[in-house]
Amino acid sequence: MVSLLSVFVCIVCALMFIDSSLSLDAQESNQLKKKAIVGLIIAAIAIAGLFLTIAASGVLVSSQTIPNSGVITSANIDLYSDYSGTQSISSISWGTVTPGNSITRTVYVKNTGNAPLTLSMTKTNWVPTSANGPITLVWNQESAVLNVNQVVAATLTLSVSSSTNGITTFSFNIVISGTG
User: Fold this and answer.
1) Which of 33-47, 57-71, 114-128 is predicted with the least confidence, judged by mean pLDDT?
2) What are the beta bridge partners of residue 107?
3) In the CATH scheme, what is the code of domain 77-179?
4) Cβ–Cβ under 8 Å, residues 40 and 14
5) SS (H, E, C) 66-103
6) Nearest to residue 177, comparing CAs of 127, 125, 113, 133?
7) What is the pLDDT of residues 75-120, one digit of tens each?
């Protein structure tokens, strides 16, 4: 609003200047004054429009930072070596595997969360990386739905290709996930 007020003050000052500086006859003076007033009004409207545009664009591009934080929960899945869930497991030993053979291990997966979960398994961090392919791991619970507090036996089958050559030891991570 201050910018509009300053525009109108400028108009009044200009009109007073025109009135005092012209020494023409009355008819020419009135015509010139009318033209000057119209010109000043058009200029005032243009300036006011410019100020409003600048003010409005400043509002449109302003921003406010809102700090935030939160906790992202993950599916609660526990692994056990027994159905009753008394023996937690954190690793599986496959022992010695001969090329062309398979070994199975059974683990028990429990949903300790508060919603049903769809199970999946991935394998990561192969050492050596060349073991991923000749050595495979599958399980019988892929895409199975595990209800709250339900325990399911999962059979993991590790297979070593008969054409495996040059791999004497291996390791990798098994990631069992549940999505709600």
Assistant:
1) 57-71
2) 154
3) 2.60.40
4) yes
5) CCCCCCCCCCCEEEECCCCCCCECCCCCCCCCCCCCEE
6) 113
7) 588 889 999 989 998 888 888 888 999 999 999 999 998 999 999 9
